[in-house]
Amino acid sequence: MKFQDAVRTCLNKYAVFSGRARRPEYWWFALFNLIGSAVTQSLDRMVFGPDMGVLGVIWGLALLVPSIAVGVRRLHDLDKSGWWLLIALIPILGTLLLIYWLIQPGTRGPNQYGPEPRVVV
């Protein structure tokens, strides 16, 4: 899956918490979110000064739901409940465990969350 395809898929599935998402879909969207956050923070500093983050807040709020949704679908691809995203609330250890899971390959074939996602080449 290419960068544009992953971003388009995640934005089209804005609040879809069912189904599965492959690694490229998740990580390309995470990169998109990171780049967008850096750009909006830079614009905030240039336009509003170092103390206000209006554009960054708007960016973060706009992508909060799709970020959670793709994270849930990524965990579904690993045959785990989406509730495991909450493990990131445990300082350091929870975040490291979640990152470890998110970089693992998904389960092959169908699992309890649906059929294996189609691979886009």
Pick out its properties:
single chain, 121 residues, mainly alpha, 58% helix, globular, transmembrane helix, transmembrane, membrane, DUF805
In a nutshell, what does this entry contain?
With 121 residues, the protein is mainly α. 58% of the residues lie in helices and 0% in strands.
Considering DSSP H and I runs of 4 or more, what fraction of the residues is helical? 55-70%
Provide the β-strand percentage band: under 5%
SS-based class: mainly alpha
CA-based shape: globular
Alpha carbon gap, first and last residue:
6 Å
Biggest sheet descriptor: none
What's the β-strand tally?
0
Radius of gyration, Cα only, in angstroms? 16 Å
**For the residues shown, what is the average pLDDT?**
94
| Unreliably modeled segments | none
As for the number of domains, it is: 1
The H-and-E topology, N to C, reads as HHHH
Number of helices: 4
InterPro entries: DUF805
Keywords: Membrane, Transmembrane, Transmembrane helix
Transmembrane segments: 26-43, 55-72, 84-103
Pfam family, one: DUF805
Spell out the blueprint of helices and strands.
Blueprint: H1 3-12, H2 23-48, H3 54-77, H4 93-102
Helix pairs in contact: 1-2, 2-3
Explain the overall architecture.
The protein is 58% helix and 0% strand. It is mainly alpha-helical and 121 residues long. The chain has one domain. It is globular. The model has no long low-confidence stretch (mean pLDDT 94).
